[in-house]
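Batch job 17 of 40 flagged for manual review because the log was empty.
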Amino acid sequence: MSVTRTARVPTTSGSRYLQQLCKHWAHKFETEFDASAGRIDLPMGRAVLVAESDALVVTLTVEEVDQVETMQDVVAKHLDRFAFREAPLPFNWQ
């Protein structure tokens, strides 16, 4: 049974961060992205990122319930690395 969690992360650099994350993982995982949206297929699930003018919306779909927190942590830590000037970014997972 898959589980979906979404966080709306306030930032005006969402486009840059989603592109950096997708490029970073493109050598290991299947990715698809442009300046406004991206998708990363990770071993534990899928990350979908959408850049808005004032936020980056991150939606994670995980196949195993017990991996939700791990995936949230992995994605948030990687985005914080790219957003080092703003880090830590506030992820309020819903």
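Reviewer: the log was empty due to a logging misconfiguration, but the result itself is present. The two ends are 17 Å apart (CA to CA). Unflagging and moving on to job 18.
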